[in-house]
Specification:
CATH class of the largest domain: Alpha Beta
Structural class: alpha+beta
Number of helices: 9
Bound molecules: pyridoxal-5'-phosphate
Number of domains: 2
Order of helices and strands: HEEHEEHHEEHEHEEEEHEHEEEH
CATH architecture of the largest domain: Alpha-Beta Barrel
Mean pLDDT: 93
CATH topology of the largest domain: D-amino Acid Aminotransferase, Chain A, domain 2
Shape: globular
Strand content: 25-35%
Low-confidence stretches: 1-18
Length: about 325
Amino acid sequence: MSDPADAPTACESESGTGHTAAAMPQVGQIWLDGRMVEAADAKISVFDHGLLYGDGCFEGIRIYNKRIFKLKSHLERMYQSAEKIYLTPRWSMEEIEDAIRMTVAANDITNGYVRLVFTRGVGTLGLNPFHCRDHTAFVIAADIALYPEELYENGLPVVVAKRRRIPIECLNPEIKSLNYLNNILAKVEAIKAGVLEAIMLNERGEVGECTGDNIFLIKDGLISTPDTSAGMLHGITRKVVIDTVAPALGYTVVERAHGIGEFFEADEVFLTGTAAEVIGVNRIDSTTIGNGKVGPITTALTKQFRTLVRENAPED
Ligand SMILES: Cc1ncc(COP(=O)(O)O)c(C=O)c1O
């Protein structure tokens, strides 16, 4: 899979411990700070604070039929993440948009995935980000491996992670920072339990999100999802489902606080994410959700989402 953060969830469809090394995505040209370079020559310094401290931010974006899904929304979230970590990008939003389009074209990607990364740049071995020079930006465009279709039909089993999501006051999860260890360690809990995704609770014990996806439930025909004050990445797929996909089917999504018990008792549970799109959950820990199959509303939402993105994916 080409996407370790959000897809991966979607990407790493292999089960078990996940200790087997996955193949590197086959990529030709990378956009690196204004130049197209061969993947083998796309290198950044070992003194880059993106590497030394996870100091930077990133986005994962889907390409459907050569259209770059919600590109503007991803660029806005990227620049908001950068602002929240006091990183002033070297490149304007328009320049990065051009870079993304150029990279997709250079690699002749029709359906795939874009990874956009800003690193803090080269600095000293100290933490001070303001001693770093030349923030680095790069764009990778690659194929994407998805969850097997069978999981969309039968549902994805998940677990509840023991590890809590980092509180908003410590490092707001709405920042898509390069430091994903909180999610990675919860993901390891999922892998060790033999599943691909884990639900993460906040410090108050409320449901926040999953390691690389947002989460929704359906009870008695009502769709709801944790509100963003629970602490989560403000998912772009989540927003598309709330604003476009659910309303197209006549549903209004309620955003409110949720305890984990509500998910165990839900009729249907589904996840949303750039890589996963809309996928039903059939089991949480050892509890079967609904009748253990993907329910009718989730099935309709998945279909509606796919119609939207496959026919004419909006780039706004
Ligand atoms: C922690 C986390 N939550 C939720 C999501 C889903 O967000 P989006 O729909 O923007 O991909 C992602 C993926 O980017 C993620 O990494």
